[in-house]
Write a structure and sequence with these properties.
By secondary structure, the protein is of the alpha+beta class. The chain has seven helices and 23 strands. About 25% of the residues are buried.
Length: about 375
C-alpha cells in the first residue's frame, strides 16, 4: 500500500508541474540535433567467438565437444598437436564476443566488448579473453579483442549448496577491443544532399524543421521528404566545409510537435502523461466488488438414540456462507479537463494508482480520452 501511495504522489506532482504550464512547454524550442541525426550516422555490430581461460574449475564441462575442438585449434596454432578427444579442462569456456563499431571509427580506437558464455560454464569470474577477431556483417575483421573480464557477480557451489549473485556467465572487457579497420560514413549523397532523420517521425515537426533551416541558414535549402526525412541541399561553397555546415544545421532551433500520449504500466502501477492531454466530459463511477465464500464443517451426532443400529451413524455436515460486499468508489461527472486535473481529483478521493489505470483505460474505451494509450 505504501508503494502505491508513493507512486501516486509522484505522478500527481509530475502532473501538476506539467499541467500547470502546458502553454510554456508547447512554446519551448529545441535544437535539431536533439530531434534526430543525419542519415548514415549509425553503429555497426561486430561479433566473434573466443575462448576464456584461467577459470577456477568453473568453465565448460569436458563433455562439451565444441569447447574441446576450439581449444585444440588454438593449440595447433602454436605447434601443439593435441586431439580434441584428449583435451580435458574445466578452466576454459567458449564465449561469444560482441561490440559496437561507432561512426567514423579509426584504426587504433578502443571499444568496449561484451562476453557471454555459450557453453555450460558455471562462472566466468577471474577469466581472461584470448585474442578474438570481431567481424562485421560483411565478414571482414574490423577489431581484435582480448583482456581480463569484469563480471560483477559470482557463483560458488559445494556439496549441492549454491550461492550466486547477478549473472556470472556474462562479463565485459572495458576498452578490450582495438579497431584494425575503421569505417567512414557517407553522409553526402551523389546529388550533394544531406538527409536529416527524425527520431520520432512526425509530419508537423518535419515541416517546421525544414522551414526553420530555410529561415535560419538560407532560403530553399531544405524540404521535407516525408514524416521522417528532411532533404538538405549543400551549397557548392559549403561542400569543402561540410563539418561547419552540419554544425549550423544541428544548432537550428525548432519547436517540435508532440503527440498526445498516456503510458501506463500495470505491473508497477505507474502512469505517465503529458499535463495537457485532454479528456472530454465523461461520467465516472468506480468501485470494488468482493465476494467471500466461507465453509464451516460440523458433526451431526444423533442424541436421542442410546443404542444406534446398523443404519444409524454420525454424519459430517458442511455449511456454506456467501458474503457480498461492495466498496464505495469515486463517482462523479468530470467536465472537459486534462489528465492532470483528473488525477488530482482522484487523488483527493484517495484512489489508488491501479484504480486510476483502470479508470483511464475505461475512459479511452469510451472515446473520451484524446490521446494514444500505451500499455506496457
Amino acid at each position: 500500500m505504501r508503494g502505491g501511495r508513493t507512486t501516486l504522489t509522484t505522478f500527481c506532482l509530475l502532473a501538476a508541474l506539467l499541467g500547470g504550464a502546458p502553454e510554456a512547454a508547447a512554446t519551448q524550442a529545441m535544437r535539431a540535433k536533439d530531434l534526430g541525426k543525419l542519415q548514415g550516422w549509425r553503429e555497426n555490430a561486430l561479433v566473434g567467438t573466443g575462448i576464456v581461460t584461467g577459470l577456477a574449475g568453473t568453465g565448460d564441462s569436458p563433455t562439451n565437444r565444441t569447447t574441446r575442438q576450439a581449444l585444440a585449434n588454438v593449440m595447433a596454432q602454436f605447434n601443439l598437436t593435441v586431439p580434441s578427444e584428449q583435451v580435458q579442462s574445466r578452466n576454459v569456456a567458449l564465449v561469444m564476443v560482441s561490440a559496437a563499431l561507432p561512426t567514423f571509427a579509426r584504426e587504433g580506437d578502443t571499444l568496449d566488448v561484451t562476453v557471454t558464455s555459450i557453453g555450460d560454464a558455471r562462472s566466468l569470474v577471474g577469466g581472461n579473453l584470448l585474442l578474438t577477431p570481431l567481424k562485421g556483417a560483411n565478414g571482414r575483421v574490423h577489431a581484435l579483442a582480448q583482456g581480463g573480464l569484469s563480471v560483477g557477480g559470482y557463483r560458488y557451489d559445494a556439496n549441492g549448496n549454491v550461492v550466486q549473485k547477478n549473472h556470472p556467465t556474462v562479463g565485459s572487457v572495458p576498452n578490450g577491443a582495438t579497431v584494425e579497420v575503421g569505417v567512414q560514413a557517407q553522409m553526402l549523397s551523389v546529388a550533394n544532399q544531406l538527409t536529416f532523420v527524425l527520431t520520432e517521425p512526425d509530419y508537423t515537426t518535419a515541416s517546421r524543421l525544414a522551414d526553420a533551416i530555410n529561415r535560419q541558414i538560407a532560403p530553399g535549402l531544405a524540404h521535407a521528404r516525408d514524416a521522417s526525412g528532411i532533404d538538405i541541399a549543400v551549397p557548392p561553397d559549403q561542400q569543402d566545409r561540410l563539418v561547419a555546415f552540419v554544425a549550423r544545421i544541428e544548432a537550428v532551433a525548432v519547436e517540435p510537435d508532440r503527440r498526445a500520449r498516456v503510458v501506463i504500466n500495470e505491473r508497477t502501477g505507474t502512469v505517465v502523461s503529458g499535463g495537457d492531454v485532454r479528456i472530454s466530459k465523461v461520467a465516472i463511477s468506480h468501485g470494488d466488488l468482493k465476494v467471500s465464500v466461507t465453509n464451516h464443517t460440523r458433526v451431526s451426532q444423533p442424541a436421542f438414540l442410546s443404542r444406534p443400529g446398523p443404519g444409524v451413524r454420525t454424519a459430517v455436515v458442511t455449511d456454506t456462507q456467501v458474503d457480498v460486499s461492495e466498496a464505495s468508489g469515486p463517482a462523479f461527472v468530470a467536465a472537459e479537463t486534462s489528465v492532470a486535473d483528473l488525477v488530482q481529483s482522484l487523488a483527493r478521493l484517495k484512489t489508488h494508482t491501479r484504480d486510476i489505470i483502470s479508470i483511464l483505460r475505461a475512459i479511452k474505451a469510451a472515446g473520451a480520452l484524446h490521446a494514444e494509450l500505451v500499455v506496457q
